Amino acid sequence: MAIKKSELYSSLWASCDELRGGMDASQYKDYVLTMLFVKYISDKYSGDKYAPLVIPDGASFQDMVALVGKETIGDDINKKILNPLKEVNQLQDFPDFNDPTKLGSGKEMIDTLSKLILIFNKPELDFSKNKAEGDDILGDAYEFLMRHFATESGKSKGQFYTPSEVSKVLAKILGINDANSTAQTTAYDPTCGSGSLLLKVADEAEKEISLYGQEKETATAGLARMNMILHNKPSGTIWADNTLAKPKWEEDGKLKTFDYVVANPPFSLSNWGNGVDAQNDIYKRFQDYGTPPDKNGDYAFLLHIIKSLKSTGKGAIILPHGVLFRGNAESEIRKNIIKKGLIKGIIGLPANLFYGTGIPACIILIDKENAHTRKGIFMIDAGKGYMKDGNKNRLRDQDIHKIVDVFNKQLEVPKYSRMVSMDEIADAKNDYNLNIPRYIDSQETEDIQDILAHLKGGIPQNDINALGDYWRVYPNLKKVLFSDTNATYAQLNVPLAEVKNTIFTHPEFLSFTNDLKTVFEQWKDKTTAELKNLDAGSKPKEVINTISEALLHAYDNRALIDQYDVYQHLMSYWSETMQDDIYVIAADGWKAGNEVNRMAKESKNAKKETVRKDVEGLDGLEGRLIPPSLIISHYFTSEQNRIDALNAKKEEGQATKIELEEEHGAEGGLFGDLEKINKAEVTKLLKEKKTEKAAKDEIAVCETYLKLLEQDSKINAELKVALKALEKNVIAKYPTLTEIEIKTLVADHKWMYTIATAITTEMERVSQALTLRIKELAERYENPMPQLKNEVETLEEKVNAHLAKMGLVW
User: Fold this and answer.
1) pTM for this structure?
2) Which of 94, 354, 432, 748 is the most buried (most CB within 10 A)?
3) What is the CATH number of domain 1-153?
4) Which ranges of the sequence are coiled-coil (predicted)?
């Protein structure tokens, strides 16, 4: 049985993080990722004489397992496992597994390394059985771990990893694709970190292209090399050294040039010039542009990239926003780059995306091929599109897609993107300053209060007309809701309480809503049929790409509703649940729907999709594809109804019991002197009250309370029996499900039901926005000054009249 993708990730992280102890995550990652690498290549390539990597005899992961508990475990891992792997495959240096300053000495080192090995020796982590064709599950797990390590590594040590979402944007706007790439196509990253940017470019090419990377930190270069292998790109070449001072890739004394270059260099590097004679640079990187300032290396990296591109090359680099507007030497360099027409576009990103810094950054796209005909620079302000993720921000799927669509199609979107002419950039006002807010006003329109409307009444026509997107869809609805007082103001024709009903029952609203429902139903019917045709061997990434693109384009040019918001609902559900399901089907087919297991106690809280909360006795069950709640709702409704009725009766009795405790438990009350209000104490009190022949109502309270306790115990006993019977029936039902039943439960009642609910909520949100805005405007100007004045005068007269009756005259 293949492990679920999310379970693989979370179990690896939880186990490794628990074992980390006091070691900094930036260091510990090297050991964990090396272990993952050795386990993966051993599972995948051992015994394969045609494999791209050789596993020497005695140097596999199983040979490492044999070292568990040995006093020489650290030294043996280095000498018997890692060094042979490194030498025969020409890999970078591995971390030192015999370093007592990081791993402890003596028994502490033995225990730490033994436990780390055993984490990867679990039967379910047989990586040879956990790779769907076309989907790099282990490569993705590697990136998952790196993201977590980057998050934990602190501000100064998280720069080895570029968030995958940003990497996707760079790769997709670069222009590389299956049609224009061949085996001779080259891609280069001069500051490659762990290699994620290069790998995203390779994914976009969809063919085997030549990958080159250089990384200053030796340990990080080793991570990049391992990352290439785990993503099935073993031919990718990674070099460890300083790119600016000692670039590896050169030909005849000149920098080697590439078809595509991507980079996320360290921001504003202060010592970039160490080892670089900028004034006499043998590669002439600064000759035609100017020398970057000694204390800021941003333009040094950008000019290195420009020099490393072929005459038809394309490059994309992530830099801090300061490169767009800083003055002095950088201003002159920027001016020269712009004049040569090298910049195709600039994309402003949200702040706090990157692990090494919280400042906002931008993507600068370089295009040499079309530089001589460049008439403008396409700019995007994407700074507001993100989600919070812990203490960082993250681009959502919808943000990535929108950026890529708008940039690649050069779409001008108000407050988001525009093509800025070279003349505008070069004029006296801007003087080659590329600061995005100069060209795109992304500020939200201020909601201005109309003083005259407050004084005289009426809703400003400007505010009503600002809802123009709605009136283009509901032109006659506007006339029903408002009538003109004059050219400047209007009045609401219906009572405030009737606004929502007026909108939601209007024929134009109903027509629009039905149209959107039809759009979704058409996508749902087609997609459900496609999903039910999946089977073992399916490619999950192709599946989600196909169905998500179909959903996105189903809402092309639809008024009011944002197609990217709709798209995000599907992508969020994919990430949370659906991805795991389809990876399971890709591995084992629909028969996985017959499987049900009892979750380990410690993992219950981590499961998001179990049974309904009121079926508490079953919350330890987990269907591999089908949650028990679906089995219950389709096959055991009468049993569930009985349980619901018992729970309702139990809650009613408990509520009455609490009322009695609150009413009689206070000081001086019937239960006030009891140590505890429970069965024993109340029974004792009842006996005393009967002996002293107390008031009937006191005896009745005691008897009622005891009856409620008895009823509660009886219901609990019945619930226990009912839940046990239901659990037995549910477990017995799973193996009897036919493939058709499984497909119906999963595709129709699990996936599509959830997606439909989310998208319906999105449509309702859009509709509610109109209602809320109209109510807000109506309430804002509902009581103009004359009316308030009259009300004050009326109230004043009433008060004075009352005072006069009391003999108090002002």
Assistant:
1) 0.86
2) 354
3) 1.20.1260.30
4) 778-805
